[in-house]
Amino acid sequence: MSLFPRAFLHQDQSSSPTIFRLLDEIDQYSRGVDRNTHQITKSFTPKFDVKELGDSFELHGELSGIDQKDVDIEFTDASTLTVKGRIERSYAKGNPPAGKEDNNVSVKKSEDSKTSREKFWVMERSIGEFSRSFTFPVPVNQESVKASMKDGILSVMIPKSKKQENRKISIQ
């Protein structure tokens, strides 16, 4: 089953806008796309799982398509961990799909057509900046935190601080 009906790909976009073009315009507007550069100006919120074990916490976040060098993990206070970063992709405005030629202009088939830009019909992947903060209910050992990224999943292991024993202070 195709995402787009066959008739949709062969309609003349210049004579009558289709519902798909209208929906794409609404989507671009709602996501803050600059029509000239197709850059996303809004942020997004990646999904995380937070798990508490006996002696630690584990965070697992979906960050597909981002390089680990573009992710920063830091403690903003004694019990709050912040994960932030940026995903960039460039979407260039391109030519209409194959079979879409303007009847008023003669089309010259040459090597130039091989280098023509692609046209994106749907842009659903997250783009922009993100920031997530996690506050832990118990003290954590900031010095022993470990993080790794594999297959687009960021994993952060945060050990809990060992309980401090009561210490009696003698009066002199």
TrEMBL record:
Question: Is Hydrolase there in the keyword field?
Answer: no
Region (Disordered) residue spans? 88-111
Q: Which segments show compositional bias classed as Basic and acidic residues? A: 99-111
Q: What sequence ranges are listed for the domain SHSP? A: 39-172
* Gene3D superfamilies noted in UniProt: 2.60.40.790
The UniProt family comment states: Belongs to the small heat shock protein (HSP20) family.
Please state what the protein is called: Bgt-50990
Q: Which organism is it from?
A: Blumeria graminis f. sp. tritici
